[in-house]
Amino acid sequence: GACRPCALVLVPTREHAATALREAAGLSEGSSLRYALAFGAQSIEESVRGLSSETTLLIATPTRLLDLLDRGSLKLDGVRSLILVAADALLDLGFDSHLRYLMEDVGIPPPNERQTALTCVTMTSALKALTPRLLRSSHVTVTGPLPALVACHRPLVMQQAIFADARSKQQVLAELLRNEQGLTLVFVNTRRQCEMLQFSIKEEGFEAGALHGERAKTKDRDATISAFVNGKAPVLVTTDGTLRFVDLPNVHTIISYDAPPSAGVYAERLSYTGCGGHTGKALTLVSDASSVDEALLVKSLLIKSGSECPRWLDGLINFRPAGSIIL
């Protein structure tokens, strides 16, 4: 007969699916919990074979979930726990119609007959519009702050501004990398800078990968991410947005080689470290070539996070005319 899980975890990408699978494996050890995984990278036949009448937890991407429902291999009338991982990403990737269909047309129990939880980086207007279909209105709990500046307050993450003369910025970065342990993400603002800095870091003797918007869709993307996560290339140079929706566990240090253009971008960079109760670092390089807008933004981020604001940063700000800050 069809598989009838009692718990369903919906994820936007296969990277999220892999992370959820690792967590399920750890939590189910020594228990009677039986889990299955269904996502687009595997064939539909493989997904069907992974299901059984004993499956209690299903981890799936929306499109593959609908495929299984259409085949009659899956029924959702027994779901008592529904978890949406990275719900804002699910909507950003165009799965809003999938979610509406799942909530209304495939027999999943209504909110008052199940427990529902969702995680998100930002509570977008699209997500707000969908929550009445997902959650009981009297049981909506927001567990994270919304404004970008508030999101920068991360007690487990040491946040610091580092001065680097424009001519010796790469040398300063190399010295920071020598003193760091664990996985390190280095953020830059352009594709060209991403590739140049990867070359420079490798010249200093570090194993480093690079990932930007144009590389993100090529076949070596998974290999680059895997080498980073596994520690074979523990430094990854990347541009903002490239790693969005990619789960990267155990990142210890974030280095903003180029200052973030806004508090929102900084908050997204910051989200990759200090997770799951672990400590982390977020280092921002500021040089004599940095604009006063960049220096002002870095100062406001440090103040909001409760971190020390160095006196030299005030010096950069006070002796040059200011423009505007994008928050």
TrEMBL record:
Name one molecular function that GO assigns to this entry: ATP binding
Span of domain Helicase ATP-binding: 1-141
Keyword Transferase among UniProt keywords = no
What are the residue boundaries of the Helicase C-terminal domain, all occurrences included?
Answer: 168-317
Supply the EC number(s): 3.6.4.13
Transmembrane stretches, by residue range? Answer: none
Q: Which UniProt keywords apply?
A: ATP-binding, Helicase, Hydrolase, Nucleotide-binding
Q: What is this protein called?
A: RNA helicase
